[in-house]
TrEMBL record:
GO BP of this protein: positive regulation of transcription by RNA polymerase II; protein sumoylation
One Gene Ontology MF term: zinc ion binding
SUPFAM superfamilies: RING/U-box
GO cellular component, as recorded: chromatin; nucleus
Organism for this UniProt entry: Syrrhaptes paradoxus
Top-level taxonomy: Eukaryota, Metazoa, Chordata, Craniata, Vertebrata
Main subcellular location: nucleus
PANTHER family: ZINC FINGER MIZ DOMAIN-CONTAINING PROTEIN, ZINC FINGER MIZ DOMAIN-CONTAINING PROTEIN 1
Entry keyword set: Isopeptide bond, Metal-binding, Nucleus, Ubl conjugation, Zinc, Zinc-finger
Gene3D superfamilies associated with the record: Zinc/RING finger domain, C3HC4 (zinc finger)
Record's protein name: ZMIZ1 protein
Location(s), subcellular: Nucleus
Length: 249
């Protein structure tokens, strides 16, 4: 199964976030799918019905299943992937057990889960490969544009490095910056160099590695400067790509 990114669908919440009643061991939650919606879900591999649980204080709404929770949909028990730690919990995808019309989610608990919320929503799950191809078509910055941007950012990068203090004192000016050809995420050679639109550094990261990193938690932060670098603001640097290709061994 290929890696996929996950994005909420606009107006796609099917069951608004809800809490379980205190000390209620078994609860049923009904939702309805119009036949046309169900049909579209089944036709499109990039659409899914996502059910997840998260801690009520978590603004990021990261998936977090209490140990005692069990879920079944239309009387089919589902396996919750909790992974090795609480950051590796995965949401449930329900479309394969859903039907047109009335559907029932049954939640069974053996301990209080009042601290958690549950939500059911439609999500768009494009494959990393398709997103990568889309970005190459739409967000490939021409080399000359990249050079202009690098020049503009150069002074701010120089100012933030230690050499900047020399600038005013004895006229020493930084004229070069070392850029690694290794991705700061994987520490392997960059294949497709990218940055966020608001990034001020020359250093790039590998685009595919960055997309893969955001498949699970989707924090969308630049691994170089930690600024927000959302999907729609990513830029592929054709100038750096040319350099990487030129020195490919």
């Amino acid at each position: 199964d290929e890696l996929r990114l996950t994005f909420p669908v606009r107006d796609g919440v099917v069951l608004e976030p809800f809490r379980l009643e205190h000390n209620l061991a078994v609860s049923n939650h009904v939702f309805h799918l119009r036949p046309t919606v169900h049909q579209t879900l089944m036709w499109r591999s990039d659409l899914e019905l996502q059910f997840k649980c998260y801690h009520h204080e978590d603004r990021q709404m990261n998936t977090n299943w209490p140990a005692s929770v069990q879920v079944s949909v239309n009387a089919t028990p589902l396996t919750i992937e909790r992974g090795d730690n609480k950051t590796s919990h995965k949401p449930l995808h329900l479309k394969h057990v859903c039907q047109p019309g009335r559907n029932t989610i049954q939640i069974t608990v053996t301990a209080c889960c009042c601290s958690h919320l549950f939500v059911l929503q439609l999500v768009h799950r494009p494959s990393v490969r398709s997103v990568l191809q889309g970005l190459l078509k739409k967000r490939l910055l021409p080399a000359e544009h990249c050079i202009t941007k690098i020049k503009r950012n150069f002074s701010s990068v120089a100012a933030s490095s230690g050499n900047a203090t020399l600038n005013g004192e004895d006229g020493v000016e930084q004229t070069a910056i070392k850029v690694s050809l290794k991705c700061p995420i994987t520490f392997r050679r960059i294949q497709l160099p990218a940055r966020g639109h608001d990034c001020k550094h020359v250093q790039c990261f590998d685009l595919e590695s960055y997309l893969q990193l955001n498949c699970e938690r989707g924090t969308w932060r630049c691994p170089v400067c930690n600024k927000t670098a959302l999907l729609e603001g990513l830029e592929v640097d054709q100038y750096m790509w040319g350099i990487l290709n030129a020195i490919q061994k």
